[in-house]
Amino acid sequence: MTSKKLLALINSSHPIPCLAVASFAGLLGLGLGIAWDRSMLIFLVVLLQQISVGLSNDWLDYKRDLKADRKDKPTVNGTVKVSELKTGAIGAAVLAQTTAFIFGSTAAVVMFVMLVAGWAYNLGMKSNWTSVVPYAVGFGAVPVFVGLASTEPFWVQTWVVAAAALLGVSAHFANVLPDIEADKLTGVNSLPHILGQRLSALAIAGTAPLATVLVVTQSKDLYPTVAAVGLVLNILVVGLAAALSIKAKPSRAAFSLLILASLVNVVLLMLGTGL
Asked: Which DSSP string do the residues of 7-72 spell out, in sequence order?
């Protein structure tokens, strides 16, 4: 395999979201007191799951991307074949599901839910009002998987799941907005499309800070000063993301800013060790 082909495959996996979600899982594991080596294994398994979802997205979207002339997509510019993405997506899914059994059957069931959520989005839910559901379920399942993947499995508290799900919802809106015009050409009509740009920006501005509020108010051992700084920082970051999302041509930087906001929340979770 040439380096050009390898880079094209990596690009097709949507590497930034992949690494962001996998890092969220690994860091959360550390914050919940899971040993670093097991937390690294959790990171790798979630990364495989994310790679599967990312590759399947470009594979299943090939005809849409071709119609929209998305030359930034490796499948459209010819640097990678659709069949290669199909093989990679299925292979990564099998590896993720198989290796999840290392953590036990219950954790493996949650991994299956994560895979189903991601693939359901790519297979059609992205094209209607239910598009937000896979993001909420997929992100919300991450801390559940992490807790069950511990050497001594446990169920994380409900508010942790709710915070993760809210981050997923905000990420969905920020991820869709930059492609709204291209999506119109291919018939995609997800919830952000239905609500419109202004309401979608408001959704980002509401859900992401709410996740932070949950973290700073429910983390038992988080110092008040740290909680206040984290809350203010995330309000500023999310506010900027919402402002970028309302522009005539929404910037992809909004999605990156929400990844940063998610990282701040993970750090707050790690510091609030009384989970």
From this structure: HHHHHHT-HHHHHHHHHHHHHHHHHTT--HHHHHHHHHHHHHHHHHHHHHHHHHTHHHHHHTT-TT
Nearest alpha-carbon partner for 211 in 257, 161, 154, 145 = 161
Residues 96 and 220 in one domain: no
Q: In this structure, what token pair is assigned to residue 164?
A: 């993760």
Residue among 217, 122, 109 nearest 162 (CA)? 217
pTM: predicted TM-score of the whole model, two decimal places: 0.89
End-of-domain residue from the set 130, 156, 182 = 156
Query: pLDDT tens digits for 111-124?
Result: 999 999 999 999 99
**Which CATH number goes with the domain that contains 176?**
1.20.120.1780
Domain count, the chain: 2
Regarding whether 233 and 121 lie in a shared domain, the answer is no
What span, in angstroms and rounded, lies between the C-alpha atoms of 131 and 121? 6
| Structural contact between residues 207 and 256, judged by C-beta atoms closer than 8 angstroms | no
In single-letter form, the type of residue at position 88 comes to G
pLDDT digits (tens, 9 = 90+) for 79-111: 889 999 999 999 999 999 999 999 999 999 999
- Domain residues for the domain of 187 are 157-275
Place of tokens 């707050």: 268
Domain termination site, one of 129, 156, 183: 156
The structure tokens listed for 190 are: 């997800």
Tokens representing 65?
Answer: 């991307």
